[in-house]
Prior knowledge:
The chain is of the alpha/beta class. Helices cover 30% and strands 27% of the residues. The protein is built from nine helices and 13 strands. A hairpin with a 2-residue loop joins strand 9 and strand 10 (167-175). Helix 7 crosses helix 8 (215-225). The longest helix has 12 residues, at 126-137. It starts with a strand and ends with a helix.
Amino acid sequence: MITKAVIPAAGRGTRAGARHIPKEMYPVGDNQYPIIQYVVEELIHSGIDDILIITRTGKRVIEDHFSQPPEDLARLIEENNITFFYTNQDEPKGLGHAVLLARKYMGNSPFILALGDDIVKSETPCARQLIDLYNFYRGPVIAVEEVPEERVSRYGIISPEKIREGVYFINDLIEKPAQEDAPSSLAVVGRYALTSEIFDILADTKPGINNEIQLTDALQVLCKRRAMYAIEYEGQRFDAGDRDGRIEAEKVFNSL
Ligand code: G1P
């Protein structure tokens, strides 16, 4: 059973003008709830009850939001008995490093990793779709979507082997490949169902692209050791850390 999740939200927002407002706190949708609230709601509706948020000094406002949440979120938290935990990632060492910080908290439990600025609008919550597939295959599952070829260099890209409609076996994956090196146009989006095996691998992973410890590099090692799956999830994803993504999300998100 997957009941734990981690949300990395320690980014520095160096590209944003509003430097001291964490981008996960930008308001979106008809209630103008912060982006990260939609991620948390998705997790709660997926059956998660323990949520670890990786933040950093100066992003205390994220913790404040969930300790004094808006009324409807407060109800959801109470009804589902949700517990929040926080830890800091104060050095910008990458997503892989952030995930490694969750090790002690996850122990041997499988868990959902949900990136704090990707939000997904779907019938079945995206994390739930991953959990259902995890329960079926008992192996790590990554959410993917087709992206235009000229955008492959922004994402982790998988080398897929189709199992059935929308489900793939992962032969390999590469972080932000050049267009000509991309093994497909199936891009990793910010939702993963992972097993604790990833932690030993991350502990041995050297900094990769951008001199950061890349989760994708560790996943590449993992997929050579054991069967790993990708799902073309049902739904629409928005990169709400990005202005265009936020404008699109504004049109479709209404909360709870
Ligand atoms: C991260 C991952 C990448 C993934 C992307 C999805 O990249 O490293 O593999 O495709 O999230 O949003 P980032 O967006 O942090 O550069």
